[in-house]
Each structure stands twice: as structure tokens, then as C-alpha cells.
Amino acid sequence: MKIPDHVxxxxxxxxxxxxxxxxxxxxxxxxxxxxxxxIDPSQVRKDIKYLNNSGKCRVGYNVKALKISIERLLxxxxxxxxxxxxxxxxxxxxxxxxxxxxxxxxxxxxxDNDPKKIGTTINGKEVFDFAxxxxxxxxxxxxxAILTVPKEHAQGIxxxxxxxxxxxxxxxxxxxxxxxxxxxxxxxxxxxxxxxxTNNDEIERNNNDD
Length: 210
Description:
8 helices, Rossmann fold, Arc Repressor Mutant, subunit A
């Protein structure tokens, strides 16, 4: 069953909420989840139907069971190894984000072409020379690359990654990548998210004025 990307995204947010509840909170309602995310409760219920997890009227969903259902569906327990390509400020920040492991993402190492960064360690992840990337992708059978390089280098590196055997690219560079059909790209559009977040109210006001 194919689950839409926007549903998968909301399910991860539901998991964040469940993970931060107090230990004595046994159940949670779709209304509470919806209020925390400023969405409609019916949307929460529709999303949770993908989990085959049913709540109880006036009681809600069992927190532990719902968490397990989301983790199983999204594969949190299946460890996925990844490389970060680009050891600049953003790549370094991602390397320091320890919660990735909680969701099955294991960052093995980082790569860069800056001699000052090669050989250093960031949160236990060694920064290797970019020249070693292709060999290590094949040797360690890594299929995921997190791309945090300047946009002028992103396309060339993405093509190299695809040729080296990478199947999934999490792209933080502000550009659209062209890759073979067997390679999946998720574009993390930071600027777009910022503009959407700050401009939604203004756009809505302008539409109402019209």
C-alpha cells in the first residue's frame, strides 16, 4: 500500500508528540494531537487508519500501541546507514543531531574536499577525503547520502553518487537535482519552508481582501 508523503510526514509528527507525553498519559485523543499541530481532528483519524490502529470512543488511542504502530510502519527499528557529503556548518550540525539513531538513521562518516576538515572528527564521525567516497559506498554497501554542499557543486556530486551506487539522496542544497529513475531524491527546501511559514497569514489576508 502506497502511503502519500504528506501522510508519512504527519505520522512522524504524531510520533514526536507521543514520545514527549508524560509516562502516566495512557491514552491520547485525535483532538489533542490535532490541536498541537493546528490541523483538523478528522485528518488525524484518517492518517491513523493507515496503521490499522483503532481508538476508543471518548478514550482515544493507546499511546504505547500507537507509537509501536508508527515505528513499525515507518521502519524506525530497521537501521539504515548513511554518509554526509559536505562537512560545512549544515553537515556538521546534522552530524551532531543524536536523535537520528532513534529513528533508524545511522550516520557512518562524512566527506569533504577541504584539507583542513579531512581527518577531523565531528560527534564521533570522521571526515574523509571525498576521493574515498565511491570506494566506501561499495565496500560498506551504503545506499543513503545526505547532501549538504553548495548548490554549484550539488548536481555534479549527485550524479557521482548515483553512479557509485547511492539509491537515496536527502538533498539540502537549494537546487533541483537530475538523477536516474532508480535514485530517489528528497529535497529539504529550507527556504521554501521558511517562506511558507512566514507568508501564509499574509497570503490569506490578501486573498480575503480580494
